[in-house]
Amino acid sequence: MQSRPPCRSQKAHSRLGKVVSREAEVLLRQLVAEGVSPWLAASRSEQLDAAVLKAPDFPFQGVVLPPGGSGDLVRAACDALAPVFTTSGGAVGQVSAPVDPRYAEEPGPLLDAARTLHRGVARPNLVVRIPMTGAGVQVLADCLAEGIGVDATLVFSTEKYAEVLDAYVDGMERALVSGRRLACISAVTTFPVGAFEQEVDARLERLGSREARGTAGQAMARRLYRLREQRLAEDWWRVLRAGGAIPPRLLWAGGGRRSVSRLVGWHTAHALPAGVLEDAARGEELHGDTLLNADREGAAMLRRLERLGARLGEAVAALEAAELRRLQNDWELSSGSAPAACGGSARSTGPGAERT
């Protein structure tokens, strides 16, 4: 791979359409050349509006929207990325918007919420973001069967990702049988790299161990990547691929600047806040694919973390519960809604009440 050419820094602008420096633009192009799709991870503090999204130099191939965005903003983001979605044949150009996570344990209301969001936005490159609880995995398959793209989030282990891939096959097979265009059904799985690594490092710190810190995220990412490659070598994928399906993409989120260079592999993506992108552009160099054929190293590192006492199974269970609570709290704060009551029938807000 060619080294990054020297560039002069540009002053950051107030709007995301121009906030990306020349160094960052070069890094983004290099990621794309390696088969990595750069997504903008938008936050409430960033000025993301229709004018920004329509900027001719908007440099991202996907957008992760926070909760609380208006339907107009979601549609504007989808429209801004529609050209790349179309020219890539649906491989890139998606916009991830969340479904109300308070229904994460209830398959009926969760599916209704996904349908409502899908109908309200009415754009083929929308992926509805669903937490992968037991109900979420079921709803993932049902959404794909109905032609609704999904961003499966809160996946912290190979066991959970295996469930996601099983549901993906189920849903896409049903979509194929019903005559839907598989190329128009996007499937993304988000691994929150940063949250996983922080949880494992915190456990090591409590044990008084300084060994192997900062390694858990890359190790698990390598295992997830290998699992997907194994599944894509099976007969079911040949059938779906012949029907026009696009390979499901792994999306790395929250990993900080180091993950940009450490997690490079074909049909993956990085969800990057603007600040993290700029930090990575100033301090990280890409050195080619870091995931293909790296499963043994990843597995060995995870075994080492277990020997050190990290108890990865417990860490994953704790993360799934804590991150779901965080998503639910973020939703309530962004929507201004009252805390959800226990039991689906007692809630005052329904799936149609979501702001996106």
Radius of gyration, taken over Cα atoms and rounded to an integer in Å: 20 Å
What level of helicity do the residues show?
A: 40-55%
The helix count comes to 14
| Mean pLDDT over the full residue set | 88
Strand content: 5-15%
What is the name of the CATH topology?
Answer: TIM Barrel
Query: Briefly, what CATH class?
Result: Alpha Beta
Q: What's the main sheet like?
A: 8 strands, parallel, barrel
Order of helices and strands: HHEHEHEHEHEHEHHHEHEHHH
What is the distance, rounded to the nearest whole angstrom, between the alpha carbons of the first and last residues?
41 Å
Provide the number of structural domains.
1
- What is the CATH superfamily? Aldolase class I
> How would you classify the helix and strand content by structural class?
alpha/beta
Shape: globular
Poorly predicted tracts of residues: 1-17, 338-356
Number of strands: 8
In the sheet with the most strands, the strands line up as 1-2-3-4-5-6-7-8
Identify the CATH architecture: Alpha-Beta Barrel
